[in-house]
Structures are given as C-alpha cells and as structure tokens.
Amino acid sequence: MTALIETLIDIVGASHVLQGNDLQAYEEDWRQRQRGKALCVVRPGSTQEVARVVKACAAARVAIVPQGGNTGLVAGSIPDESGTQVLMSLRRMTAVRGLDPVNQTITVEAGCVLQSLQEAAEQAGFLFPLSLGAEGSCTIGGNLATNAGGTQVLRYGNARELCLGLEVVTPQGDLWDGLAGLRKDNTGYDLRDLFVGSEGTLGVITAATLKLYPKPVAQLTAWAALASLEDANRLLGLAQRQLGASLTGFEVMNRQALQLVDKHFPHLRVPMWQENDWCVLLELSDNESEIHARGLLESLLEGALQDEVVADAIVAESLKQAHDLWHIRESITLAQTQEGHNVKHDISIPVSGIPAFVRAADAALRAALPGIRFVNFGHLGDGNLHYNIQAPEPSDASAFVRAHEDQISAIVYDMVSKHQGSISAEHGVGELKRHKLAEHKSPVALQLMRSIKSAIDPLNTMNPGRLLVAPN
C-alpha cells in the first residue's frame, strides 16, 4: 500500500492525502452511529486528478469510497472497518463552471455545496429549487448520487429531474463528459439516469449541468391544522386543483413531532400543535404578484375551513414569519436528536395509501412495543413520509434502539411492502438498508442491478458493500 500512497501524493500533493487517526470527520457517518477506517483520505482538486486517482486505485485493486458533504443517513459514504479503502473527498471541487441564462442551466463541480449553488442561481436571477435541511453542508455530487428529494419535489421533482447532464469518472479511470445540457437526446441508453442514484457504486460524479427556473415573483407560506391524514389528503387535492403548478410545497407533521420541537426549541413558538393531531405547511410560488398569490392561498384556506377540511390556518404575513414556519419543520430532526436515539424510516407510499399505512403500522408497533412514540413528518405531496420511532418515556433511548431497532424496522418495512411502497424514498440504501433491499425488491430487479454493476465495475472497486448485497 505504500506505493499507492506515494502515487496518490504525486497526483494531488502531500497536503491532500490524509493519514493517521484524526480522520473522524471523514470516517464517521452524520448520525454518529457508524465509523469505519480508511487507508487514507485523498482530496483531488480537479476532474483530471480524480481520473488519475481512480486509475491508480484500479491498478492496485484498492476500493474507493466517494464522499461529498458526508450528510447521508444510511452510512453510504464512509469506509468499512478494514483500513484498506481509499476515501475520496470531493470537497475541494467547488467551482461554478458556467451559467447559461438562455438555456437556463448551471454547471457546477460535485463538491459545490447546495446552498452555494442556490445562491449562485439567485444572483443571476434564477431559482435552483432543490431544498433540504442539510443544504448548508451537503454537496451536489452527493445529492445526485442519492437522488435527493427535499421540500419542493411536488413541483420540481427529485435531483434526477433537475439534472440535464453529468461528468463521470468510470471505475477504470476513464472520463465520460455528458455536460451538454440537452433536454432532448435520443441516442441510446440514458447514462445520466444510470449514475444518478447509484450511490457511488458505478463511478465518481465530478460535475453536473442542472436546470434553472425563473425566480417566482412571490412566495407565500401557510400553516394549517387538521384532525387526520385523510383531511391532509383532502386539502392536498383541493390545493392541487386550485393552485395547480403554483403549489411548490406540502409538508405534513404529526403532533408528537411538533411537541418535540416545542419541548427542545420553545423559542420557535410552534402554532396549533396542542389541539390538533396533524399540521400542514403549504408553499405557493406565483409568477404574477404577491396580491394574486395571497388571494389564491386565502381562497383555498377559506374554502377548506368552511368544508371542515382544516380546523385552523394562518398565512405568513412576512418573509420572516414564513422562514420561522419553515424553521419549525426543519427542526424536527434536530429535536429528535435532542430527545435521544431513535429509529428512522425514509419511506414512500402512494399518496392515497398513506393514511391506511400509518394506521396499520401504528397499530402493529403499539401491539409489539407499548408506549413507543411516533414522530411522523414528510413530503405528503409526493408520498414521502419520515416514519420515525422514539423510545417510550421514561427509558434509556440508546438501549431501547439497540434492543428493538431490527424488530421495529421489520414491522415498518413489511407494512411498506403491503402498501406497495418503497423502503427508501430519498436517502438512499447505503450500508444500513442493503440487506433489507434484498428482502423488499424483486429478484428480477436485483439481478438487473447486479448485472449493471458487474458490467461497469467488474473489479468491484467503487464503493463496494453499498446498495447491493452479493448473491448467495
């Protein structure tokens, strides 16, 4: 391995090949639940350096683990415990290579932080609509590798739908330049979509060309309280009919999720949670005027109140109030962390089936583990629910999770399958869910995925042991 380390130093420089015991920021997952050990961390500064590093590792038959902001929740971008894998950090590759206002595209390197990309688009008078809680530290390469979702998928789609082209280094160290930014290209297999969502198992994404949208003239936020998920679905239907494409966000949160925010961050002043089982956060983006937008949103909510779809509602009166309402939603995960270890599930169900899924899963888990707390929230508009379980009060949360996590997840994933859902909606599979994937995805689909992996990465050097379990 000494020869490989020397080669890597020759490629990127000694200051960008990190070794030793002080690599926790790279080797530990964001939730601090798993830690691996890398042979070294290499930090290339250009696509050419990435290609040379990959070629050197392929020649040495050494595995590579690509990493962006290391904000993932499924331990998919940290090394295993063998001490033999090279962790490749893309954090130095942050450049905005170009912005085409006529084509409405922006081309950025994989290590560009999502928030920096949003700001670059805004400065040019455009919107890049991918938005999620980790946007201040996650990178666009990681967003694409996991096909990230977020709060505006309802209108703009996942990361895949926002991507028009990629630059990728293959497992052999070759470079595929597909950055043209074409909206129509019918010349064979869609390689872009193959690499998006592949979690670093097929190659290293080094740059991307992404869609931009005109900035809306007005954005308004509303908060509504409801008695049930059935009412949330009714409100969603009303909003889609009356607002159309102007509806850009529709987030649902249960009482327990908001109670934790109120408990740990009381300064946020969570509205309406004590009297209602569910609350919804709506966002409307309008290209006409704020007056027009407010009229649409108030008309929607007035009708919903008259029809008893919602119990109460408010429309944010300022940008600050809108920000504060969104901050409540984004603080749920942090409040859970403050409360103690918990069991997280990032699932998707057909929107119409979510109420029935929640009833069935809640009942099965209560029967198995009385006293557990359900912290449910997510992007109801696209069927993505974060179905999380908190330990009973009072109890040792860490001990509870260690003892019951597998049992809880088995019940949840069984219910997901019964309701024609997916066990991973936007966080990926990584290490944590790869064995579950083999239980909940069709054998034909898994064989096709293995065939693709074997064809593109025959030496299995790209993020091995992630996403796929080797066949028996």
From TrEMBL:
Keywords: FAD, Flavoprotein
Pfam families: FAD-oxidase_C, FAD_binding_4
Flavoprotein is among the record's keywords: yes
Signal sequence coordinates: none
Example of a GO biological process term: respiratory electron transport chain
UniProt domain FAD-binding PCMH-type: residue ranges: 34-215
UniProt entry tagged with the keyword Flavoprotein: yes
GO MF entry, a single one: catalytic activity
Cofactor: FAD
Family under the similarity heading: Belongs to the FAD-binding oxidoreductase/transferase type 4 family.
UniProt protein name: Hydroxyacid dehydrogenase
Native source organism of the sequence: Malikia granosa
Lineage: Bacteria, Pseudomonadati, Pseudomonadota, Betaproteobacteria, Burkholderiales
